[in-house]
Amino acid sequence: MTLLELLQDYSRSKALPMHMPGHKRNTALAPYLEVLGAELDITEIPDFSNLHDPVGTLAERMKDAAALWGSRRAWWLIGGSTAGLLAAIDAATTPGDKVLIARNCHKAVYNACMLCRLETAYIQPTCFPGQSFADCITPAQVEAAMTAHPDTRLVVVTSPTYEGIISNIPAISEIVHRYGAVLLVDEAHGAHLGLSDHFPASAVTQGADIVVQSLHKTLPSLTQTAMLHLCSDRISADELGFRLSVYQTSSPSYLLMASIDSCVQLLTGQRDELFAQWKQSLNQFHNALSLHHLSIPLKNIPNSDPSKLLVSSVGTNITGPALAERLRTQYSIETEMSTANTVLAMTGMGDTANDLLRLAKALNEIDSTLSGSLSITAGALPLPQAAMPIYQAAKSPIEFAAVSEAAGRISGDFLWAYPPGIPLVVPGEIISRELIAYIRDSASAGVDISGPKATPVGQLRVLKKG
Ligand SMILES: Cc1ncc(COP(=O)(O)O)c(C=O)c1O
Questions:
Q1: 185 and 305, same structural domain?
Q2: Element (H or E) spanning 321, and its range?
Q3: The pLDDT value given to residue 14
Q4: Which residue's alpha carbon is at the smallest distance from atom 10 of ligand 1?
Q5: Same domain as 205, residue 132
Q6: Ligand 1, closest atom to CA 82?
Q7: Residue 97 is assigned to a structural domain of this protein
Q8: Is 339 in the pocket of ligand 1 (CB under 6 A)?
Q9: Is residue 186 within 6 Å of ligand 1 at its C-beta?
Q10: Are strands 398-402 and 98-102 parallel, antiparallel or unpaired?
């Protein structure tokens, strides 16, 4: 039985719930509970096992997930890829270890390094030619970084990136393993990879040791649902399972878990036809598109994920946020993210051909009103110089400094645009003049750069001197 079937059976049994959750499936009390599917919202009662110690149906259905992607073992996650990244990094390291991070990793990776008291070294991706978003991490960059940091315990790479760039995981894993380190691939944006000929391979079968995927980002599964795959014996499964129980709630939602299981069962049964339909809709989108100013820079780029429709406004008289705003207000199309000169329209398995044709039509119409312009935003920032590890700076006394006077001070916070939540500077790094200029340029393009901690407008958190 799938978890959903088990829950439906149980709901029909009319058992008296003298246990959590407190709504007791009483939809007369709160009608919204019915809409939210509360009749299936239970807790860990006999026969329903436990996410943190799966047996019976839960264990069997998790094996289905491992079989679908081809991993040694898969864990369902109800805390998103965030929980998977925290647990994986904790499981793979001990305090003081060195971690080599692709600088365009998500904030969860940095938070894990802070919590686990890790030393960090970085690989700075170059910009995709002519654009301001990150290109792939190359094997040559990994080789150079491992030569400089041969004591690295763990390497973390995001592939595909938010924009859809895929790195050469087979070559990178070969290098990482040659140095005796472990490779964690943040595949949060690539849960749909490796399941059909229409999309690229997944890192799960390409040499990564651990892979984390957000099902909710691209597949038919509820928000917060994700998957952690163990793909080699370089990391202990027991340790991973334990760390997951540390970072995830002790009361996991059966609605979220049923959504994961249903998604896996759907793909197991119908993936060929579902992925073929998705790819066909994408092809129809590209055929319908007729752009003279805007562009789709990753179209036909072999190391990219075709599901991501990244629209570039480089060389036009519109910024990314302004383009997103026109799509929202004139066409009721809400996009995923905009940067100074890109807008990301994410597709997912749930899109229909008509949905994507509607997007193509809107882009064509907006494009016909645009002209060329001189506004091109600067590329990647140089890697900041680190004065101390993240974990040390994050616990040090801070004060506020005006942005204009912060150059040369040590940052007491992360700074990023959210989304994508990729830090421009992390606690312990020295704030550069280039960063100050970048914050100002971004603000004038309508992109807010800020950190997770409350900070007065126009100021930055910096470490107290002395
Ligand atoms: C690259 C990357 N990794 C990890 C995450 C975290 O994923 P989740 O929202 O599933 O926790 C995100 C979220 O946007 C992301 O972009």
A1: no
A2: helix 320-331
A3: 85
A4: 80
A5: yes
A6: 11
A7: yes
A8: no
A9: yes
A10: unpaired
Give the Cα separation of 394 and 390 in Å (integer). 6
| Integer CA distances (angstroms), 438 to 359, 376, 431, in order | 31, 13, 11
Determine the Cα–Cα distance for residues 34 and 438; give it in Å rounded to an integer: 48
Same domain (yes/no): 7, 129: no
For every residue of 128-182, DSSP letters joined together read PTTSSSB-PPPHHHHHHHHHH-TTEEEEEEESS-TT-B---HHHHHHHHHHTT-E
Ligand 1 centroid to Cα of residue 214, in Å, is: 7
Domain span including residue 296: 272-367
Question: Is 104 in the same domain as 213?
Answer: yes
For residue 349, pLDDT over 80 is answered with yes
Domain count, the chain: 4
> For residue 374, is pLDDT > 60?
no
Model pLDDT for residues 131-160, shown as the tens digit of each residue? 989 999 999 999 999 999 999 999 999 999
Distance 81 CA to ligand 1 centre (A): 6
Tell me phi and psi for residue 211, to 5 degrees: -135, 135
* Token pair for 123: 């690989």
Tens digits of residue pLDDT in 14-38 = 888 888 889 998 888 888 899 899 9
Q: Is 80 in the pocket of ligand 1 (CB under 6 A)?
A: yes
Instruction: Please indicate whether residue 190, judged by its CB atom, sits closer than 6 Å to ligand 1.
Output: no
